Amino acid sequence: MIGLLIILCILDYSLSFKIFQKGGSELNVFMVTLMNSHKALLLLVKFGLTFICLVFILFHKNFKLFGLIKSHNLIYFVFSVYFVLVLYEFYSLALIRKFEYFP
Question: Exposed, middle or buried, 64 (CB in 10 Å: 0-12/13-18/19+)?
Answer without folding.
Answer: exposed
